[in-house]
């Protein structure tokens, strides 16, 4: 009888790693935590369970996630370590290559400031002071907005299921530093980002072609004429430069005078490693109506490309039939947006146009010309490929001020005879 009593008091054998305390069971495991910028090995336990099998299962899941590299230490992970984990997940998302590069750059800036802090210990006040410090140090509004956008993405991921590493998102409710416009810019009433006025555009385009004709040799003339044509088309269509450089022959519908926009060029890793991405967003996938003059420019470009194909022979890239092509080390590959931008800068200097403009600003030039021609804002936005854009609206309202003034005068004239 005594032997039976002794056997009944003998403890059950627990699964490996499981410990019992006061009738509750936990799984003990080791992990690495970051303290004062250094990683240390530390033993931890799972939550307690009423039976050993549940504790063991919870522990095995943690072990599996450690092996896969997806486990995070909810209590002690540093901002830097979590940011790296977040970026691994972000990088796998369906985003453009250049967007991923930009996010990583901003993340690294944030890591310099907060990297060694435990994520759970960063306070809203601490982050708020950081944003104000950025402005005080001379950082521009767009730089601060970009950093804040990235920080928000990192922290929201940590606060939401299934991770829930922190109880509260410390970026919620913080105040973005205010940037006031100068008195002079308000007096002028012009958009801060500039565009070419109608007369300036005429000088700009004429100078672009004139410079091409004065190039040193036939090869250089071909290159310059192509860039001049590209700038001309950008001004008259409102295309993004990446959309223009991604065009192939099948995208041009000469009969119906339309351009089919379904891709954009990404040369983040060099022209020979170009990528054809989908457009910026859903509204960017569109048909752009063009004039007979633009169709004529595309025909001229097709003739120029045939000359280049003959010139380079077997060295001409034939995988894609791009409209605008590289004529340097990688003939036949797409024309680099950087080459167009460099030529534009030279043309602006030669033309004496004292404005700091990029090819993208030619979209604003297209907006101003369309507004002056009396085209409605909604129609302009459809051509440009976005539903709403602050700068487009600002340019449109600036150009149409005189039209609005005429409409007011018409109302007064109507009422005068009463």
TrEMBL record:
SUPFAM superfamilies xrefs: DNA breaking-rejoining enzymes (SSF56349)
Segments of this protein annotated with the region Disordered: 1-22
UniProt keyword list: DNA integration, DNA recombination, DNA-binding
UniProt xrefs under PROSITE patterns: CB, TYR_RECOMBINASE
Top-level taxon in the UniProt lineage: Bacteria
Entry GO MF terms: DNA binding
The UniProt record lists the keyword DNA-binding: yes
Pfam families: Phage_int_SAM_3, Phage_integrase
Biased composition (Basic residues): 1-14
GO biological process: DNA integration; DNA recombination
Family: Belongs to the 'phage' integrase family.
PANTHER family linked: PHAGE INTEGRASE-RELATED, PROPHAGE INTEGRASE INTD-RELATED
Name the record gives this protein: Integrase
């Amino acid at each position: 009888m005594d032997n039976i009593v002794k056997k009944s008091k003998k403890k059950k054998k627990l699964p490996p790693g499981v410990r019992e305390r006061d009738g509750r069971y936990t799984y003990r495991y080791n992990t690495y935590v970051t303290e004062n910028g250094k990683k240390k090995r530390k033993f931890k336990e799972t939550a307690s369970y009423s039976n050993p099998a549940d504790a063991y299962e919870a522990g095995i899941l943690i072990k599996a996630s450690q092996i896969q590299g997806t486990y995070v230490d909810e209590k002690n992970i540093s901002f830097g370590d979590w940011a790296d984990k977040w970026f691994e997940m972000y990088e796998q998302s369906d985003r453009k290559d250049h967007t991923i590069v930009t996010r990583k750059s901003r993340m690294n800036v944030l890591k310099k400031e907060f990297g060694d802090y435990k994520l759970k210990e960063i306070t809203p006040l601490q982050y708020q002071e950081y944003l104000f410090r950025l402005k005080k140090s001379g950082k521009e509004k767009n730089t601060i907005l970009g950093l804040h956008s990235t920080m928000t993405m990192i922290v929201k991921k940590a606060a939401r299921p299934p991770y829930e590493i922190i109880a509260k998102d410390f970026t919620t409710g913080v105040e973005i530093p205010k940037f006031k416009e100068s008195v002079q810019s308000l007096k002028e009433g012009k958009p801060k980002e500039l565009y070419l006025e109608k007369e300036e555009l005429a000088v700009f385009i004429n100078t672009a072609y004139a410079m091409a004709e004065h190039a040193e040799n036939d090869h250089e003339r071909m290159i310059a004429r192509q860039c001049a044509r590209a700038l001309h088309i950008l001004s008259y269509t409102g295309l993004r430069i990446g959309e223009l450089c991604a065009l192939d022959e099948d995208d041009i519908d000469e009969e119906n005078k339309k351009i089919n926009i379904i891709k954009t060029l990404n040369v983040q890793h060099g022209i020979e490693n170009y990528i054809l991405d989908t457009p910026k967003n859903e509204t960017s996938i569109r048909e752009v109506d063009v004039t007979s003059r633009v169709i004529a420019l595309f025909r001229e470009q097709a003739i120029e490309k045939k000359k280049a194909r003959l010139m380079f022979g077997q060295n001409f890239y034939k995988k894609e039939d791009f409209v605008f092509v590289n004529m340097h080390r990688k003939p036949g590959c797409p024309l680099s947006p950087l080459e167009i931008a460099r030529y534009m800068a030279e043309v602006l200097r030669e033309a004496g146009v004292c404005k700091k403009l990029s090819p993208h600003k030619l979209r604003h030039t297209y907006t101003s010309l369309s507004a002056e021609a009396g085209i409605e804002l909604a129609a302009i936005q459809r051509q440009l490929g976005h539903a709403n854009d602050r700068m487009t609206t600002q340019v449109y309202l600036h150009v149409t001020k005189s039209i609005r003034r005429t409409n007011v005068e018409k109302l007064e004239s109507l009422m005068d005879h009463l």
